[in-house]
Amino acid sequence: MRLLHTSDWHLGRAFHRVNMLAAQAEFIRHLVGIVRERDVDAVVVSGDVYDRAVPPLAAVELFDDALHSLAGLGVPTVMISGNHDSARRLGVGAGLIDRAGIHLRTEPSACGTPVILSDAHGEVAFYGLPYLEPALVKDEFGVEKAGHEAVLAAAMDRVRADLAARARGTRSVVLAHAFVTGGEASDSERDITVGGVAAVPAGVFDGVDYTALGHLHGSQTITERVRYSGSPLAYSFSEADHRKSMWLVDLDADGAVTAERIDCPAPRALARIRGPLEELLADPALARHEDAWVEATLTDTVRPAEPMARIGERFPHTLSLVFDPDRAPDDPDVSYARRLAGRGDQQIAEDFVAHVRGAGPDEDEQTVLRDAFDAVRADAVVREVAR
User: Fold this and answer.
1) Rounded-to-integer distance, Cα 297 and Cα 278, Å
2) Could you tell me if 165 and 173 are in contact, meaning their C-beta atoms sit under 8 angstroms apart?
3) pLDDT (tens digit per residue) in 116-137
4) Interatomic CA distance for residues 299 and 280, integer angstroms
5) Where are the domains of the chain?
6) pLDDT tens track for 134-177
């Protein structure tokens, strides 16, 4: 069986001030073309279909067009909700849409109930694990402490139990939306840390033939059977070096996996340039970036006059201008943002405690801080779901 694995469409999202809807529509046309040209048997979409719980109407219309195009080809599509989606909204009408071959899996309680598709070698069971927010689903899965690994492990126990009850030789595919250990994050993914831990081990997915992951925006191979497709478009300058693609996966009669990357169309190249303004304007090596979307970081010790207008004369598609003056690390004028770069909420809070009282928090105090951050994140998720 040939699968096309994609995820993280984020329909409705902009790139800085650029509306990406036309580029997202071009990607959908590309995806439908690949399905037709490469004889794809099933499409899997591993979450974050939309960029937010209440998407703009234009994004909903594009999603509707995508579903109609895929259904028109007669190729089944299995799709789960991600942490950016409203599971309830995405899942509206799922029972009716099922009849058209579009299988929306947004309910945590249905993790162990697969979509069954068949080829010449028998059945393939597709298990959809939508994004599982630990604070909201721990009771459903009977876990004592809310955590990503605990709820995903419990969901996968249901998958393996169902698979064990099926005919010998039934092949299996899991769709999941999670941060798996070994994956490389970018700046455009929403933080899903709980209890100080965001990642879960790839071993959670042992026992199935292929795991189609969503959430991280870079295409990545965690193991030969566990992969991220990545987002089809770049949504932050941290993705400037990404090769945006989908996975074309062949599952043979015995469940062996071979995978090929299929490139996605890019509306414009991305570039990150850094240095004093005058050097950026004069450096001939930067000519290749003159038609790209640009993030320019200026290192001048004194902020230049009209920097955006001047950088825009050479790089007319500059979208982001960052000031990061070259100074010694102990210079008192080093920016607060620079000192905090790369530090998580927990670490910043612990450093603050150490700063105001002269000693960092002990283990019990670290737990209090961690629980407070988890409670804030969980409350934000509940309010998002309720919108």
Assistant:
1) 12
2) no
3) 999 999 999 999 999 999 989 9
4) 10
5) 2-263, 270-326
6) 989 999 999 988 889 999 999 999 999 999 999 999 999 999 99
Spans of the chain below 70 pLDDT: 191-198, 328-343, 355-356, 358, 367, 370-371, 373-387
CA gap 106, 103 in Å, rounded: 10
Structural class in CATH, domain 2-263: alpha beta
Across 33-168, where does the E strand assignment appear?
42-46, 77-80, 102-105, 115-119, 122-129
Tell me the C-alpha distance between 365 and 380, whole Å: 23
Q: Where are the beta strands (DSSP E) in 47-178?
A: 77-80, 102-105, 115-119, 122-129, 171-177
Q: Is 258 helix (H, G, I), strand (E, B) or coil?
A: strand
**Strand pairing report for 293-298 and 270-275:** parallel
Residue 250 tokens, joined: 């062949």
pLDDT digits (tens, 9 = 90+) for 209-236: 999 999 999 999 999 999 999 999 999 9
Indicate the SS3 state at residue 316.
coil
Q: How far is CA 279 from the centre of its chain?
A: 36
Residues whose CB falls within 8 Å of the CB of residue 208, separated by 6 or more in sequence, listed in order:
127, 159, 160, 163, 172, 173, 174, 225
